[in-house]
Amino acid sequence: xxxxxxxxxxxxxxxxxxxxxxxxxxxxxxxxxxxxxxxxxxxxxxxxxxxxxxxxxxxxxxxxxxxxxxxxxxxxxxxxxxxxxxxxxxxxxxxxxxxxxxxxxxxxxxxxxxxxxxxxxxxxxxxxxxxxxxxxxxxxxxxxxxxxxxxxxxxxxxxxxxxxxxxxxxxxxxxxxxxxxxxxxxxxxxxxxxxxxxxxxxxxxxxxxxxxxxxxxxxxxxxxxxxxxxxxxxxxxxxxxxxxxxxxxxxxxxxxxxxxxxxxxxxxxxxxxx
Amino acid sequence: xxxxxxxxxxxxxxxxxxxxxxxxxxxxxxxxxxxxxxxxxxxxxxxxxxxxxxxxxxxxxxxxxxxxxxxxxxxxxxxxxxxxxxxxxxxxxxxxxxxxxxxxxxxxxxxxxxxxxxxxxxxxxxxxxxxxxxxxxxxxxxxxxxxxxxxxxxxxxxxxxxxxxxxxxxxxxxxxxxxxxxxxxxxxxxxxxxxxxxxxxxxxxxxxxxxxxxxxxxxxxxxxxxxxxxxxxxxxxxxxxxxxxxxxxxxxxxxxxxxxxxxxxxxxxxxxxxxxxxxxxxxxxxxxxxxxxxxxxxxxxxxxxxxxxxxxxxxxxxxxxxxxxxxxxxxxxxxxxxxxxxxxxxxxxxxxxxxxxxxxxxxxxxxxxxxxxxxxxxxxxxxxxxxxxxxxxxxxxxxxxxxxxxxx
Lengths: 274, 408
What we know:
A: 8 helices; 30% helix; globular; B: 408 residues; two-stranded antiparallel sheet
């Protein structure tokens, strides 16, 4: 859902293509809201503006693909949406919380509670079992061991890895490692699953399987933002946003946030936790 | 995040690179082990010196005959034959008798000593031979195991009698009773009247490999009536030792027409020897401890070094942990725990190695562990972990997660 509100960015206005169905949608709470976000690296002569005024809302249950070439500012956008970095100017809110005033400690807590990350390079901790990797965010959240184990096993079951809980990352294929990472991302029931080029290191088959997992998670009610440069991946999303030179240059709504993902291959089955 | 969980993360971090952790631990092990061992060696040597000195007797004062003004210019460098410098005088029996008049003196025993061959039948042995008065025995804390001491009467009549030290007696007679037997001292027959109880070894020479005979007899037969080697003065009590020392000095200065600068004697008491010796051995212990502490410091720097490498190597892991919600404080705690664990494991093993090491005699010294050094070494090693792990742990805690995640 697009909100060309009073804060809308200067620069190239996004092409808005509101679908009739979107107008029938109930009003949804934005999970993340960017208001004229500017991110500048360095100071003085050497200053580089990676984001030049980005405004964007992502609502609950939405499935958004952010597309852009390298250098377009999409990594910076991902860092800000992931609470790994804060904007230089403008506002970023996640679940209504403004990150601008938070310190590193508070950002860490926010990441733990609100965001589940899936990275291109899987980023599992070596020499730790799949189960221990999935338990990691729960450990930092202070969840007790028994509860941690129960929830981590449920998350691994959901991504189809219930049999490999004791395997170390190096004993798993790339596709399996990435599914462990997805389990880790969803184990805390975050407000947003943020995937950065999740299929970048996977072959076609494993990419398909992974996107299938994302489709099912979204169908089950998860809000997902995927950052990618692959059109095949973006096709799975309900909304596709183009980023170039630090601006949003296109914003195309495919299906309303409340609908099922466009490429969902089979109906939702299995125990998906809200 | 519970401390137990942080501890488990730290343990897993150390287990991930066992060889490196082991070698780092070795640095602390050697440091702590050498502190404990070397301090024990210093302490052991200090105790053996103190034991040797206190066996001399707390109230005994020894007046040693020296060669005179050794610090002054040689007489030969000035006019030949000149008597500008007082010739060192003999320490005489008359001097000893004069000392007996001083306040607080219980007894005075003039002493001449030499080293002679003792023989009995086929066995012979070289022992130190002391000529003195019977008052020498109580002054030296000697006790009898067999027979009796010689008497003043026997001194006055220069009888050929001898009291043997326990080692000298067993070398010559084995288990047989020597009392009443005749031994040859430098070829002269002496009758054994008594055997002393063992006093044990005091450092390099044995106090038991000795023979003691009347002063007159030894002077008559062996040393001649020249100077005494020393005079053993027994104060009435240990508290009077200092006063008596002063009196001895002034009496002898007067009799030898000397000033303190060119004295031809030295006055030594067990307590003055003890304080000199203990200050010397204290310096020795501190020096050994300092050398060992330097190796502990090197071990600590090793921890910093390895932890810096570890933190750099695990940059991406730190990024992941931060991305999934580890706060800077938790990351700091994990790496500090890793460093402190390394240091404490090294410290515990070092204590073990040090304590085992003190079971052995090292360069002739039986080390005596200073009990305080064990908890101290353990505490210091834990502290080293905290201090030397602080820099790397801080670096890990302050990494920016976005950069750390991208680190190759």
